[in-house]
Design brief:
The protein is built from 14 helices and 22 strands. With about 475 residues, it is an alpha/beta fold. The chain has two domains: about 280 residues, Ribonuclease Z/Hydroxyacylglutathione hydrolase-like (Metallo-beta-lactamase, Chain A, 4-Layer Sandwich), CATH 3.60.15.10; about 180 residues, Rossmann fold, CATH 3.40.50. Strands 6-5-4-3-2-1-22 form a seven-stranded mixed β-sheet. A seven-stranded mixed β-sheet has the order 7-8-9-10-11-20-21, with helices on one face. Strands 14-13-15-12-16-19 form a six-stranded parallel β-sheet. The longest helix has about 30 residues. The termini are close together. The model has no long low-confidence stretch (mean pLDDT about 95).
Length: about 475
């Protein structure tokens, strides 16, 4: 069989997932994310490595922007075919892509004003990667499908979306390529979730695959158990409130924000923390939380038990959804100790930057990063604890308590990744390890080689493989 697989992102880095599969005269793009690492963002501005109008379909594993956020740029450059994803991902992507466009336009305008104020002539025009109109142009192309529904992509190629257990609507994509003589089965993991996490169900395990493309975000480490996460959060909340400060939590709008609300609800309901005002300062997170309510059929048994008791972690005393910018600004004047959850999770944009400015130099406050921080992001810079940090063009001394809780991550750790991979009953022809920093990807690849003797590759950016 004449099949090619090209890696257009997330190769020895954690964002920008996009993989081009060419088979039976069809070009399929699995995921279409943008890069969030500062040193790699130029890739998104460069011409796309293949002509967008030559791509026959895009298949999105989920709505996180490092998997979907480049889609408006691709459409604005000529892609006009279908974008397949699950129903929940379709609903969430509309919210996230529109919000992404608004933030990019706002950031570009703010950068332009800063340069004008300081008399700086930038090397490039202050432009957004795409506009609100570009994001809206994607929406008619979204083609939602149900889990396990077979999608006919033509020329003997079919795709099926399986539950990934990562975030609401997240999928692993199984692609079957057939011709008269043979067939090949590809599994693209997207992001693999953790077992026994709140709200959503466990990841799907596969018994057969010819080629496996797996993420490796935590490919070199183990993560804390569930009970440890809850206990640690309770301690952080209580100590911050006792100090009279604010707990600032940069959070992804999808799943991470809902998971944090779930744990806070449990802590309040169990009276392990005192009554406290919790501000979800993200219209996108608030909108996505409302979408969660429409997909109870995707929840795990523990979450369904709460629903049967007419309880929900998305509504509790003290929880406030902050919608407009003026309300967000007022949070900077809060006197009573509070919890503020705002996007983005790696502090790369959005309202969280303003809350960091107001609190990062306050010894009584705590900044808690709830998960992985990619190289080159503001979040990664802060958790490395320099004496001062640059936010929106100015420098601020770091005096607040800075914490990073990996246990909140919705990514599988090394042991769970191997559990998922070793579900295969026999050796695949090859495994490709992606979506992880180089050390993490290499660590996972080496573990597979040593334990199973299977063929594993860790591709570089723009590597192309001819597969039989």
């Amino acid at each position: 069989m004449d099949i090619k697989l090209k890696f257009l992102g997330a190769s020895k880095n954690v964002t920008g997932s996009r993989f081009l599969l060419e088979a039976n005269s069809k070009r399929l793009l699995i995921d279409c994310g943008f890069h969030q690492e500062r040193g790699l963002r130029a890739r998104d501005w460069n011409p796309f490595p293949v002509a967008p109008d030559s791509i026959d379909a895009v298949l999105l594993t989920h709505a996180h922007l490092d998997h979907s956020g480049y889609t408006p740029r691709l459409v604005s450059r000529g892609f006009k075919n279908r974008i397949y994803c699950t129903e929940a991902t379709s609903d969430i992507a509309r919210v996230m892509l529109l919000d992404s466009a608004k933030i990019q336009m706002m950031d570009a305008e703010n950068k332009k004003k800063r340069h004008q104020r300081r008399g700086v002539k930038p090397p490039h025009p202050e432009l957004p990667l795409y506009t609100i109109q570009d994001a809206e142009d994607c929406f008619p192309l979204l083609s939602p499908v149900k889990y396990l529904q077979k999608v006919n992509l033509g020329e003997g190629i079919t795709a099926v979306f399986h539950n990934a257990g990562h975030v609401l609507g997240a999928a692993m994509v199984e692609i079957l390529v057939e011709n008269k003589n043979d067939r090949r089965r590809f599994i693209f993991s997207g992001d693999i979730g953790r077992w026994d996490r709140p709200i959503i169900r466990n990841p799907t395990i596969f018994e057969q695959a010819d080629y496996l493309v797996t993420e490796s975000t935590y490919g070199e480490r183990s993560l804390p158990e569930e009970d440890t996460i809850f206990e640690e959060l309770v301690e952080i909340v209580n100590s911050t409130l006792k100090a009279g400060g604010h707990l600032i939590i940069p959070s992804f709008a999808l799943e991470r924000a809902q998971d944090i609300l779930y744990y806070l609800y449990q802590a309040l309901d169990s009276r392990l923390i005192p009554p406290v005002n919790v501000y979800l300062d993200s219209p996108m997170a608030a909108n996505i939380t409302n979408i969660f309510k429409n997909y109870a059929g995707l929840f795990d048994e523990e979450m369904m038990d709460l629903i049967r008791q007419n309880k929900t972690p998305f509504e509790f005393p003290g929880l406030r959804f902050v919608q407009n910018a003026e309300e967000s600004k007022q949070l900077n004047n809060l006197r009573d100790p509070s919890i503020i959850i705002a996007g983005s999770g790696m502090a790369t944009g959005g309202r969280i930057k303003f809350h960091l400015i107001s609190n990062i130099s306050r010894p009584e406050s705590t900044v808690m990063f709830a998960g992985y921080q990619a190289v080159g992001t503001l979040g990664r810079n802060i958790v490395q604890l320099p004496e001062e940090v640059r936010i929106l063009g100015d420098y601020y001394p770091i005096k607040a308590r800075i914490l990073q809780m990996h246990g909140f991550s919705s990514h599988a750790d090394k042991d769970q990744l191997l559990r998922w991979i070793y579900g295969l009953k026999q050796a695949p022809r090859r495994i490709f390890v992606v979506h992880g920093e180089e050390d993490a990807a290499n660590s996972l690849a080496e573990a597979i080689r040593q334990q199973k003797g299977w063929e594993v590759s860790v591709p570089d950016y723009l590597d192309e493989f001819a597969l039989d």
